[in-house]
Amino acid sequence: MRRCFRSLPSNFRHFSGTVRHFPNHPTLLRSRHPPSPKSQQIRPFSIRHRLRTIRAGFTRLPLIIHLPLITLLTIITWLPVLWFFFTHIFQPMSVKGPSMYPFLNTDHYTSTRKDIIAVNMYKPGQDVRRGDVVVFRSPLDPEKVVVKRVIAIEGDIVYTRLPYPIEKQEVSVGHVWVEGEHPEHTRWSYDSNAYGAVSKSLIMGKVIGVVWPWSRRSWIDSDDWPGSRRVIEKKNEETMDVAT
């Protein structure tokens, strides 16, 4: 027995039949002093991990609660995207009144239903051409939204109608001349002949098509408009004869 104890390292001692560690033994030092917080591995914050944790919590819910809750969260997530799309990209609008008859509201005198048009709201004041049907805020009442056709752009000369006080008017830079299409124009259309050319900054969008009624759904292209004989286009001003 003594030989066994003698073979022990010098940093071990014999006390009352037991063997004790010497206090400065490296193993004891490691057990007494836990690793510092700096030496511990810190997991970085991960949104993906957090979402997985939340999703795992939802899957533990009863099915009768889980499905409606997931549907509601999906709708809430898409609400900002839908709001941006229908405010700045595309917006359906209903047409009220006969000023664009018979091009729009063809059934105005036989039915109470209104045409629903699709309006492109993306960069509305750029690349406005003759023949475009535009939606804009009225210069006299910004709260009122109006739909008319652009018949002349900046630099064009327009032979006006009553009640405009001047017989011939040149469209100034940054403006367009808009008019309705009702045959009894003076009575039913309140347009540039009443308040002059409209600033492009008031244009909210271009009408790209009719979506309702379903039987008259169609795309609207400015190239299909035949033009107006009351307009002298700027590029053809020297050679074009205009009938008044």
Instruction: Give the termini distance in whole angstroms.
Output: 133 Å
Counting DSSP H or I runs of 4 or more residues, the number of helices is: 6
> What is the average per-residue confidence, as pLDDT, rounded to a whole number?
79
How much of the sequence is in beta strands? 15-25%
Largest sheet, described in full?
Answer: 8 strands, antiparallel
Radius of gyration: 39 Å
Order of helices and strands: HEEHHHEEEEEEEHHEEEE
Q: Which term fits the overall shape?
A: elongated
Can you lay out the helices and strands and say which pair or pack?
Elements: H1 2-6, E1 13-15, E2 18-20, H2 26-32, H3 47-59, H4 63-88, E3 90-94, E4 116-120, E5 133-137, E6 145-152, E7 157-159, E8 168-170, E9 175-179, H5 185-188, H6 192-195, E10 198-199, E11 203-212, E12 218-219, E13 231-232
Antiparallel strand pairs: 1-2, 3-4, 4-11, 5-6, 5-11, 6-9, 7-8, 7-13, 9-10, 11-12
Can you offer a commentary on this structure?
With 244 residues, this protein is an alpha+beta fold. Helix content is 24%, strand content 23%. It has helices at residues 2-6, 26-32, 47-59, 63-88, 185-188, 192-195; strands at residues 13-15, 18-20, 90-94, 116-120, 133-137, 145-152, 157-159, 168-170, 175-179, 198-199, 203-212, 218-219, 231-232.
In short:
The chain has 244 residues and is of the alpha+beta class.
